[in-house]
Amino acid sequence: ITLSLPERLRQEFPILSETPYGKPLVYLDNAATTQKPNAVIDAVAHYYRHQNSNVHRGAHYLGDLATAALENARDSVARFIGADREEVIWTRGTTESINLVAHGLRSQLRPGDEVLISSLEHHANIVPWQQACAATGATLKVIPLQADASLDLTDLDQLINANTRVLAVTWASNALGVVTPLHTLIARARDVGALVVVDAAQAISHFQINVRELDCDFMAFSGHKMFGPTGIGVLYGRKEHLNALPPYQTGGEMIETVTFETATWNQLPYKFEAGTPHIAGAIGLGAAVEWLARQDRSAFLAHENDLRDYLTERARAFPGLRIIGDTADKVATLSFLLDGAHPNDVGTLLDQQGVAVRTGHHCTMPLMNLLGIPGTVRASLAPYNSRDDVDALFTALEKAARFL
Ligand code: PMP
């Protein structure tokens, strides 16, 4: 028998066999974090069993193994996104990556400068820019929403203008799944010479990304949303822009020389990697991107788009269900509300039936305010999900709706 794509993938993700409350697990919270294949779990375990040591010290056998594994992981990530290895900075995740850039750019922002974000941003791509603007006198501007929750580019030429220094925008909304018109935005940012920072936290697991083709200056993403470990992420930055940024944290490893009076900085990427890195995490992320590189990513996306369409079709037919962000260009994420029910209550009733979704504001409070809602129920899918999972969601929703 030939297995379907999700059937084959499920064999590589041991956690999907768990049975919460004695029910088969239906994991639909992939936008929060994806599950991990054996390739990643084994790489992390292998590191701790056979290689654990501090890195970059050249002190002994294990130290050399650990250093090689860490730097091989960096090479893997660089290949995966089409960057040079010194352009790949290890961080704790998307949040730290964006903070690193927003903090560093304070030295370049002046009163009158504009930083442009979108209405769809996660708090991680809002608050660091608010702080940078507050510290420098620059102005934070926001791309508005249309009625269907896609971005409104009617006034693009005013939004991105001669004062725009930074365009910091997500590729896909974690809250609604809406995909942004990133290529149009980047082209306009190039016209005015603005720096482009892409929040790829959601996009990275769905799209095949090449940073040179995309023509961005910085890109942030998290390992745990792309089948890798938590606590590790990446900041990609174009070499000349990384060189122009001051260090974010200071201490060991990021220096070249230190006296009691002053210090000089290490070369890229180490200038931005103060302290002992999350070695096991980086190795796990390297294993995740090597695993992804072995997969048929086009088949992944086709399968996800098929699931997205099926999910949307079933949602439209469900009595009293309102889809939030019902646009054509979306990843396989569905945000919704049930008439008269608080999203948290819906989430609890789904959980009791083994269906894991996320409820609440999804770290997008300004977006929820624009939409005039307190939050949503969000089902977000990965390639190991199947139509059976979607059916299980709606069977559980029917039961939940009878309770509410
Ligand atoms: N941006 C987006 C679009 C996200 O989905 C997330 C995670 N929900 C973040 C930023 C923050 O990522 P992390 O918590 O891994 O730093």
From TrEMBL:
Give a GO molecular function annotation for the protein.
transaminase activity
Entry cofactors: pyridoxal 5'-phosphate
**What reactions does this protein catalyze?**
(sulfur carrier)-H + L-cysteine = (sulfur carrier)-SH + L-alanine
Q: Which domain of life is it from?
A: Bacteria
Signal peptide bounds: none
* Keyword Secreted among record annotations: no
Q: Which PANTHER family match?
A: CYSTEINE DESULFURASE, CYSTEINE DESULFURASE 1, CHLOROPLASTIC
Similarity comment text for this entry? Belongs to the class-V pyridoxal-phosphate-dependent aminotransferase family. Csd subfamily.
Its annotated function is as follows:
Catalyzes the removal of elemental sulfur and selenium atoms from L-cysteine, L-cystine, L-selenocysteine, and L-selenocystine to produce L-alanine.
Name of protein:
Cysteine desulfurase
Say which species the protein is native to: Isoalcanivorax beigongshangi
Q: Supply the source organism's classification.
A: Bacteria, Pseudomonadati, Pseudomonadota, Gammaproteobacteria, Oceanospirillales
